[in-house]
Write a structure and sequence with these properties.
By secondary structure, the chain is an alpha+beta fold. 50% of the residues lie in helices and 24% in strands. A hairpin with a 4-residue loop joins β1 and β2.
């Protein structure tokens, strides 16, 4: 199952394996496994974060290194 994350002012789309994302980041796990809107829509918006930061985060999520 993939989650859609929209990042930065340009709303760049990152598609991420939700199970892996939730396993690595407790904050995101609560968003996607709780009664929040993100869980219902299977997407989240991080408009104040940068695409570069999310590129690094995705690298860490998938490879365990930055």
């Amino acid at each position: 199952d993939m989650a859609e994350l929209y990042v930065g002012p340009q709303m760049k789309l990152f598609r991420v394996h939700k199970e892996l994302l939730c396993k690595k980041i407790p904050y995101v796990r609560k968003m996607f496994q709780g009664g929040f809107q993100e869980a219902q829509q299977n997407s989240a918006t991080f408009s104040e974060d940068t695409e570069e930061a999310f590129d690094l985060l995705m690298g860490w999520i998938y490879t365990d290194s930055v």
